[in-house]
Design a protein that fits this description.
By secondary structure, the protein is α+β, with helices and mostly antiparallel strands. About 20% of the residues lie in helices and about 30% in strands. A two-stranded antiparallel ribbon has the order 1-4. The chain has a two-stranded antiparallel sheet with strand order 2-3. The two termini are about 25 Å apart.
Length: about 160
């Protein structure tokens, strides 16, 4: 969910004048230091979901690595920042009143998939897969973008490792 969100940007338009607080102060060209940004009505804003979900200040120095332990050992909760997402501080489903209405369904679907499928099968890519941005993120085979969406996988039975498997 953090690395492979369906949408990589969120586009919004300010419906009224507002002020955007900054997580860190920035120095502008005049030399002044600002801690908030005025956002006039009608301003178009593009928020990068991919950048937020890989922000080292939120996820640590290994933000570019898939590390499920960050939720198991509590390091994901140690970061003292305001959560903007509806689920686990991920921007994948956005946040607030315009967040994804199907986020709970998506999370439950992924949990069911992991519970039922991943323990019984092993998955491996047969080709080098990359993500392409075309309105939403889609998998393609490296060098075959013109063949549209593809994700060939090698699926095999997982070895049984004990009772109840």
């Amino acid at each position: 969910l953090r690395f492979c969100s369906v949408s990589y940007h969120a586009h919004r338009c300010a419906s009224q004048d507002d002020v955007l607080p900054l997580s860190q102060p920035i120095t502008i060209r005049s030399g002044d230091v600002i801690r908030e940004l005025p956002v006039p009505k009608g301003t178009r804003i593009v928020a990068s979901i991919a950048a937020y979900n890989r922000n080292k200040e939120l996820w640590g120095e290994d933000a570019h690595v898939s590390n499920p332990d960050r939720w198991l050992n509590g390091t994901a909760k140690e970061k003292k920042v305001t959560s903007i997402g509806v689920y686990s501080n991920l921007m994948t489903f956005l946040g607030g009143v315009r967040s994804c209405i199907g986020w709970r369904f998506a999370v439950i679907k992924i949990q069911a998939f992991l519970t039922e499928i991943v323990g019984k099968f092993e998955f491996a890519p047969t080709e080098l897969i990359r993500q392409e941005a075309c309105l939403m993120m889609v998998p393609t085979v490296d060098g075959e973008v013109e063949n549209v969406v593809q994700m060939p996988l090698r699926v095999s039975l997982a070895p049984r490792t004990g009772k109840g498997c």
